Fold these 2 entries.
Entry 1:
Amino acid sequence: MDTLINHCRHNIPPEVENVALLEGLDPGKAAEHIITGRLVIPHNTRRKHKVIGIGDICQVKVNVNIGTSNQLCDPALELQKAEAALINGADSLMDLSTGGDLLGMRKELLRLDTVIGTVPVYEAVRRAGNAADLEADLLFRVIREHCNQGVDFLTLHCGVNTDVFQSLHEDPRTMGVVSRGGAFHVAMMASQGIENPLWSEFDYLLEILGEYDVVASLGDGMRPGCQDDAERLAKSVEYLNLGRLARRALDAGVQRMIEGPGHIPLEQIGYNVRMIKELTGDAPLYLLGPLVTDIAPGYDHLVGAIGGSVACMYGANFLCMVSPSEHLALPRVEDIIEGTRASVIAAHIGDLVQGSRKAKMQELLMGEMRHNLDWEAQFATALFPEVARVIHDRDPGDGTCSMCGDLCAVKMIRDIFP
Ligand code: SF4
């Protein structure tokens, strides 16, 4: 297959050169990580856009989900959200639309100069009428259409097989299945008494993805929906499946990454991340959250940022934004802005804990600028300069800030130790 993995076996493709330049890597090392599946570069061959690298040797990346629902279907609003996400630091967008003109929405997003992901089963279920009636042919047809239209990575719930299905009976969970895609596949399997076609016909799926060099984002259909469900069997059975599939995809020359759990206690993040990494041969890991408490609706962006930072400490590579409206409503523009910023902060903390020199230099610079009481330089160093400026400038002072005013400790000590 004409894929990046296979190209890297013979030369260094331009996408790899670009990512190496952006990340300050040796191109040969980047190519080696592509071949061994520890780095992915989502770049559908049918579309040109800014490339990003996702993996252990790259900085942590942030994805933002947008998309219509049938209850709130306003494509213009979704485009505003997409722009707000990119302005505030998102590295990629996922279109999770389920309402209105799905193709029209996707085409608008594919015009943007960024990496785009989708979840084809959403559209397949819309076309089928309901998940119970979804047939394999339609699902594969929609997957091919998304690839042909230029989507760079697809969430595919291939690991939700009959073993996983059985584990839901053997070890029931409070929240059952909360992944929308996971629930669709379970409904399809239950009503038709069949194996998940993405599991049983995985080789055919790889052929489609390989044709367009689309990254398989092997979805966490069994992500726990509450803290207690993190200890139930289903997610671990799915991890094993994803480990097998990750190896098969790599053998076929198809890039893949792994999606990880949603709601899990803080102290369980480390071993979950390490387990997924070990089972999948250190495949890039894409996480929603993790959400480390269930009782802070309205502030789930902060909960997700805490979980995401800790996950990075153990090797997570790609964080999916959680917005303040998670569990409550479709996000508005202001929710996307807050959620994206929280995820960008978590990703930066992730870079620090993973030893990024660039991230450490930013920290060092901010310390020096704070010592110098150089406000302009502090704003320039901040992740969100205008936010910092507006807060500082609301109380004009004489070089310090209104927190301590004339009792500024920094100024006092600087006078003693210039
Ligand atoms: S006034 Fe207080 S908070 Fe403000 S810079 Fe000085 S020490 Fe820091």
Entry 2:
Amino acid sequence: MTDAAKVPDFSMPHDFSTPHEVLDAVRNAHRVVLATHSPMDGDGLGCGLALMRALKHAGKAVTFVTEAPVPRAYGFLPGASDIIQLRPSQPVPDFDLLLGLDAGEEDRLGRAFSQRPTRSVVLNIDHHVSNPRYGDVVWVDDKAASTGEQVYQLLVDLDMLDQTMAQALLVSLVTDTGRFLYSSTTSRTLRIAAALVDAGASLDHIQLNLYGARPLPYLRLRGRAVESIVFHDEGRIAVLTVPEGFGADLGVDVEDIKDLVDITVGVEGVVVAALVRGLPGGGTKVSLRSKDDRADVANLASRHGGGGHIRASGFSSADDPEITVAALLPGMRELAVAAGR
Ligand SMILES: [Mn+2]
């Protein structure tokens, strides 16, 4: 702290409120479909559960759809079992509002977007800096550490927040900020977390049910992953390649595999890390992480057709993992150099 430290202002910043078009779109809707990126993470799931509950209370017909299984780890949250996993041939329920949550690209909403009714409204609520602003009503706030921050504000402005919604949104905040430790965490994040706790949400409940209750297969998977990390450039770059089917014998979720990226970037000395996942039916999904703002992985991901945040981003490739890694490494080396020593 400098001696010129300002008197802290504990009020919410004035520049943060729900855009009125967003409030109008939600208020005017009758049949709402909620969707997030597939497979979903804790942020999209928490936002969807909170909104599902709120909009049901408001008398609207609401369906929260997904095309990938709901991660089992979040089964402790009320409403998680009401999320509809669409079968490949199953039509998306009819709707007049599609509420896209935490989806940095429209494609990530799946058939809820691609098969939307002609006269429906698409509302895009997201915090990814690379969001192309798809949809009819757009609320992208790249200062938000999670979409949960935006949905918190939306539910406050609709005067609908209750304890159950607050708990779901606290999961959004906690999971997307690495338990409030990532650089994306702001004082606003913490103020909103405090407000959620005031509304009855419990951090201990999340600790006991999520981080303090890891299934043994999840931990075994992480052990295997540690053995498989390949380091480059004197340990400043870490790449973990997981072939399709990695951990299948353990019965883990896709979400558990995606979490492995935190191990790669968590190693001492690593500046830039990648998790390179082979996909069923071919192709590769890459998650990038950085420990230094000068190593901008959003920029690197965008060069490969993806996007995200400065320190967390990703992209997809039609190539297999080996070719993808070879194409990716030069860019990772540039970032490791940009970050200095
Ligand atoms: Mn998010």
